[in-house]
Specification:
267 residues; alpha+beta; 2 domains; five-stranded mixed β-sheet; three-stranded antiparallel β-sheet; elongated
Length: 267
Amino acid sequence: MKKGLLCLLACMCPLLGQPVVTVEPVAPSLSGITLIKPVDSNFQSLVATFVPASEMPAFAPFLPYSVIVRNSTPRNILGMSVVFRVVNQQGQPFTMAISPANFPTMRRPVLAPGKTFFVPVESPGRTDSSVGLTASASLGIEQYNSSRSIDISVDSVLFDDGTLAGPDTLNMFDHYSARLLAFKTIAQNIISYKDPLPLKGYLDGITLTRDQARELRKTGGLQAETKIEMSVLAIRVAQQLDRKSIDPLIRNEMAVLEDVGKMSVHK
């Protein structure tokens, strides 16, 4: 398997004009988080634990521009952001961000202590959390191969005690804070309802259209982020309400409050 993967890498990487790939050292605040690079001796064997052999040919072109994150801390990681800063052949910069998260429920961490997480710059045909996630944009392998440079770094990590560590140039602090506030607010309001019709009216009232959400994103800030997150949750809860009675929904939201009631996001 390892030999086959090395052959694929050798075939897929251009001999001339190959971009300069830099994997940045992790910030001091991220002590215990390490990045395993394509040139490291254990990279190929670890990739093989995430990507089935049948899918390896599709992933192989992207592997020179991918990393594996290892959590050597004693804490669960609920969310993290890996940033790929690309400068194309014309000198134009692009930023790709992959931010897997399971927050704030804490029931299934993104990365447990001692575990690794494969972060390909793109996941061809895959959107599950075992092999990366859908990126914030898509450039295609030709763009990566012809780029001048690709800089890879861990921008932030959210631990299970609510600590956000790292440079956080993406301002995930506001995103996680807004998501937590939205979870708490939605849950508190839902359990106050006894009848599904008024609850449906409440959920409809906080649901945004795509245009409204787009305008709020332009505004930015914690308040705008919270409204967007509440809208996303409202849509999800409304779908659940259509499939079952209000009582199981209230019990679920009470469990959510028990999970996140005392949680906060801090640096």
